[in-house]
Amino acid sequence: MLDKNPEQIIGNDLTQIQIKFEQNNPNVILCSKPFHKIEFLDKLINSTEDPIIFIDMDLLYTGYVESKMIQKKENLTIFCPDKVDWEEKFSEIISKVSKDRFLVIIDSFNGIYNLFDDLESAIFINSCVMLLSSIGNHVKSSVVITGMARKKENDGWVLSPGGRHVIKSEKTGVYFLKKTKNDLVISTLEQTDGKRK
Fold this sequence. Notes:
197 residues; alpha/beta; Rossmann fold; nine-stranded mixed beta sheet; 7 helices; 38% helix; globular
């Protein structure tokens, strides 16, 4: 389990990671390489039987699905909202998540912040994420949000590019994803920062 073993190699069985994701909502997965993020999301999607809502803000995953480099699972619904239809699609997602258990993936914070670039919009987006997580808690849905990030000296983890700080609350699980040789490794951000939980 991630608490006792703060670094975990990601294989085919993601049961322990899924349990951790259910305990923390939302869950933020940070990484520095977009291909590692897609590899992790594909493993996560293929490891669950729950219905999945994928909110693709940077269109990278959708590109892989449309090019048939990644096979789309039948239990996966992809939303690609833009600034004009965000509220309509978000309402549809909230309606679905409030009734049944889902794995909700928002890919990525960077794409959201590129779409909504002013401070007021950032507050609105954070509120949407927290609302989605709160509703998801009632039906044991997990919310996973990815972000391309880098560690900024004396400033913690920031989204890259742009430099915005990563959303955090007491219930938020924050993880760092990296690749070592041939393995994807996920660790709690506290461990990556050299702090103990």
